[in-house]
Design goal:
Its EC number is 2.6.1.85. The structure is a single chain. With 889 residues, the protein is an alpha+beta fold. Among the domains are: 240 residues, Rossmann fold, CATH 3.40.50; 208 residues, no CATH class. Helices cover 26% and strands 26% of the residues. The strands form three sheets. Strands 10, 11, 12, 16, 19, 20, 21, 22, 23, 24, 30, 33 and 34 form a 13-stranded mixed β-sheet that branches. Strands 13, 14, 15, 17, 18, 25, 26, 27, 28, 29, 31 and 32 form a twelve-stranded antiparallel β-sheet that branches. It has a nine-stranded mixed β-sheet with strand order 2-1-3-4-9-8-7-5-6, with helices on both faces. A hairpin with a 4-residue loop joins strand 13 and strand 14.
């Protein structure tokens, strides 16, 4: 007899996606995901589905999703499918496994009532107890009692309404078993970069506390978690078997496969030996990720990367001071700056800083006008892409011309063992939040956000920046072909440039052989002279400074008193923001979302004596002398775009997405924050006579450790992190090999200058037909800035944020790099951070405006006033630096 594992590989499974951000995680529960097709619940009419789709499959999984099964727009063709199981002819009957919304839908169609949960659970784990200990033909057969399962629901099937044909097979008690388990589990600290991330964290399942005696649990505190139909092949679970923290999800899907085979045998249906026809596979929404509109030109090798190392180890020079001097040496008020700055030296993710001041060209984009502007030198051109093309297509096409670039290290008076630089020339810039219009499947621009300006388009009478959507483009990149790479660990500067080695579609990119030698050597002399001058100056300052008599360290910047008056004004009022938070909570109660990342913007008009242009060189000092010193971060950045008179300065701690040369994708969401303990706490210990000695230091360290443990054990913070981890796993499964999606670090504690964060790491292997641009597109916008499910959450947030565009904030910032000839794929790589803790400077008609975005994840447990205070607190990562700059200018 053929084994179940072999049979489960040939079972044809259809998953109906109810636009949930976790549906694609179900693929990871199958031994052979290539024999699984996912369609949307509105992709076909019912007649089309019956005639052209249903006959090709052996079983169906109905996914989770936002909303209610009673609403046709939320449940789509799942409703007639389930009605056909109840009342339809035998040829339409098929084994169905309903998950969460799918489970509720089965109950609803068969007469059950959907009500509000007594306890809303999103991203928390509960102990699930089976009611049938022996094998009973259920998806939960042979599972231990109890097992952990993750719950994402605010609605439930009311137990008293359950029809007799649906037999309860599991429930959970509404207790705090997860909190009890976490009390005795020590926190896990992040240990830096991964050697190989394609495995799951063995600590992702915490131990079970003792199970309460069934007889002592009030039946009113029990929630139904699973049922099966007494005669039809229908099963449902309220929890999410596909979550990374649910135990035995693979076994549940294996049980579903076995039950399918049993039903097929009884119904006289034979298992087809052949796989799903390619014509049916193409129906899957996974095909959305294919590069159908991209002009892939293969490997060109029209350029070579030349690298000249400069040893500055003998100079005790701050990289910020050095880069400030390099920028100042160009004497140009309109200089375009590209600075990706690893400002946090102790971070394992801070290795290289990259600075460029003379890009080959600049490209920007407006989503509402489909308008691409390209600037090279003093010449600018505008063009309008077609309706079925996206800006992602355009930049993917550009980067396809820079695959497999070889590198050559020039040993000019010394030897240097250099590993491949992470950035090898390419596009550096940002994708603003509104780029979701071209990345988020199913999203449509609301009427309130449409632009009816007549000054744009192929037939417009003139071309000018006449509206807000052109003032700050939705996306903008410099193509960098000459740059400085600063190794913050080894204290080397690498002077790098792309050298032309043949005819290219981009003649403006790269230098000639002779020009490259001149440029590199001239800049070597510049770097050495600046470093020597700065080193001497700093040495003289140190020698003339008095030796401190008190050994106590100075108070960290985090503990400086806040300036007397905040100079920033929010876009919304306190009362309006509180009202929006309450509406978020109501939407979550109604099952429309699990969490919503509500945001607003804070703005300040700089006085004309400080700056009249957002690209004023003086604004660079806001970053170098204030922000990067007060709030260093591994993904800090300073960019300026003179073409549209805008600049930004950020200190983001959060990696959005990285694609390396081997095609490994890594994402690192941050959710959960607590302030560090950095000052004396001896007042809390009366038994200690504090004199700033070792005991004082020890108590401070112990309190800092206590805060780390409390953060790690906080179920609300953990739930927020887990929700985004599961969302990211879903995003990666769209364009990566589903079975490689893994979570090597789940909810680890990562330490920064002033705070501890809860950080997770999610990895996967990129599919061969996907490039780094598509990887970013299919993950955008960052889930940590939207909530989940992503599409429905974004749509809700549009309304609750009053359709005010977020702009660059909440998007991502980083690079698409030319591919390395020595890497496994040779394709362009990428690394982007989430745009948070960032100041945006834009030039208005009468002034320069500084804006800062801030927000927070709203859950059902959120306290509105606390959430507002958290928003104000988050502005303090950037606002004090701006205020210091204004005060000292």
């Amino acid at each position: 007899m053929v084994s179940l594992a072999r049979n489960s590989m040939t079972i044809r499974t259809l998953i109906i996606d109810n636009y949930d951000s976790y549906t694609f995680n179900l693929l990871q529960l199958f031994p052979e995901p290539s024999n699984v097709v996912i369609i949307r619940n509105d992709q076909f009419t019912w007649p089309q589905f019956v005639s052209s789709v249903l006959p090709h499959f052996d079983n169906i999984v109905i996914s989770p999703g936002p909303g209610r099964p009673e609403h046709p727009d939320d449940f789509g063709l799942c409703t007639p499918l389930l009605q056909a199981q109840k009342d339809g002819p035998d040829h339409l009957r098929i084994p169905i496994f309903g998950v969460c919304l799918g489970y509720e839908g089965i109950a609803h169609v068969f007469g059950g009532k959907i009500g509000y949960a007594h306890r809303i659970m999103h991203g928390r784990i509960s102990q699930i107890v089976r009611t049938e200990q022996k094998s009973s033909g259920d998806v939960l057969d042979h599972l231990p009692v109890p097992f952990w399962a993750v719950r994402y629901h605010s609605l439930v099937v009311e137990a008293e309404s359950l029809p007799a044909c649906l037999k309860v097979t599991a429930y959970c008690s509404e207790q705090d078993a997860d909190m009890e388990a976490l009390e005795s589990a020590p926190y896990v600290s992040d240990q830096g970069e991964l050697a190989n991330g394609l495995h799951n964290d063995p600590a992702n399942i915490i131990p079970h506390p003792p199970l309460e005696n069934d007889e002592t649990v009030d039946s009113g505190k029990r929630t139904l978690m699973a049922f099966r139909h007494e005669s039809l092949p229908l099963w449902g679970v309220q929890f999410h078997p596909e979550s990374i923290c649910t135990e035995y999800g693979v076994r549940m899907m294996s049980n579903f496969s076995k039950l399918t085979l049993d039903w097929m045998a009884k119904a006289g249906k034979k298992l087809r030996k052949e796989r799903i026809p390619s014509s049916i596979l193409k129906l899957s929404v996974v095909a959305d990720a294919n590069m159908e509109n991209v002009m892939v030109d293969g490997i060109h090798n029209h350029h070579e990367l030349r690298i000249l190392p400069v040893d500055i180890e003998n100079f005790s020079v701050n990289s910020g001071d050095l880069f400030e001097e390099i920028i100042a040496s160009h004497q140009n008020e309109q200089i375009p700056i590209t600075w990706l700055d690893s400002a946090m030296k102790q971070s394992p993710y801070s290795k290289f800083s990259t600075l460029a001041v003379d890009p080959a060209f600049t490209i920007s984009y407006s989503t509402l006008h489909k308008e691409v502007t390209t600037t090279s030198g003093t010449a600018s051109t505008r063009e309008y892409i077609t309706a079925n093309e996206t800006f992602y297509d355009r930049i993917s096409s550009i980067m396809s011309n820079f695959n497999a670039i070889p590198q050559k290290v020039i040993n000019d008076g010394g030897d240097c063992a250099l590993e491949s630089l992470p950035f090898r020339g390419g596009l550096v810039g940002y994708l603003g939040y509104e780029m979701k219009r071209e990345s988020l499947a199913g999203y449509h621009v609301p009427k309130e956000q449409e632009c009816h300006c007549q000054m744009h388009g192929p037939d417009s009478p003139t071309e000018q920046n006449c509206c807000r959507c052109q003032e700050i483009p939705d996306a903008a990149f410099h193509f960098v072909d000459k740059y400085f790479a600063f190794d913050v660990k080894e204290r080397y500067i690498y002077i790098c440039c792309l050298v032309k080695c043949g005819q290219s579609k981009f003649p403006q990119v790269g230098l000639s052989e002779e020009a490259s030698r001149d440029w590199m050597r001239n800049n070597k002399q510049l770097v050495l002279s600046i470093a020597q001058r700065l080193g001497q100056s700093q040495m003289e300052t140190a020698c003339s400074s008095p030796i401190p008599t008190n050994s106590r360290l100075p108070t960290p910047p985090d503990n400086k008193p806040i300036l007397k008056e905040d100079i920033f004004e929010p876009d919304t009022t306190h009362s309006k923001y509180i009202d929006s938070i309450k509406k978020c909570i109501e939407q979550i109660r109604e099952g429309e979302s699990y969490e919503l990342c509500l945001t607003t913007q804070f703005r300040h008009a700089l006085h004309e004596d400080i700056a009249t242009n957002a690209c004023d060189p003086q604004l660079t000092k806001l970053y170098t002398r204030h922000l990067r010193r007060n709030n260093p971060a591994p993904f800090s950045a300073a960019l300026s775009f003179p073409t549209f008179k805008m600049s930004l300065m950020g200190s983001s701690p959060e990696r959005f997405l990285k694609v390396d040369g081997n095609g490994i994708v890594e994402m690192k969401p941050i959710k959960g924050t607590v302030k560090r303990c950095l000052t004396c706490v001896c007042d809390d210990h009366p038994e200690i006579d504090c004199d700033m000695d070792e005991e004082c230091t020890r108590q401070t360290a112990l309190e800092d450790q206590r805060r780390m443990q409390a953060l790690w054990s906080d179920v609300k913070e953990r739930a927020e992190n887990l929700m985004i981890v599961d969302l990211i796993r879903n995003d990666l499964a769209h364009f990566c090999e589903p079975k490689t999606v893994s979570v090597p670090k789940l909810i680890h504690v990562e330490t920064y200058e002033k705070v501890h964060h809860l950080v997770s790491t999610v990895c996967a292997q990129l599919r061969p037909d996907i490039d780094s641009v598509r990887a970013v597109q299919n993950s955008f916008p960052p889930g940590s800035m939207t909530g989940a499910p992503k599409l429905r959450s974004v749509q809700i947030l549009d309304t609750l944020e009053h359709h005010i565009p977020r702009g660059i904030y909440s998007g991502c910032l980083g690079y698409f790099s030319a591919g390395d000839a020595n890497s496994a794929t040779g394709k362009a790589t990428a690394e982007f951070s989430v745009v948070i803790r960032t100041a945006i400077a834009s030039t208005k008609a009468t002034h320069v405006e500084m804006s800062i975005g801030a927000g927070g994840a709203i859950t059902f447990l959120s306290d509105p006033e606390n959430e507002w205070r958290e928003v104000l607190l988050k502005t303090k990562s950037v606002a004090p630096s701006v205020e210091e700059y204004v005060e000292n200018a």
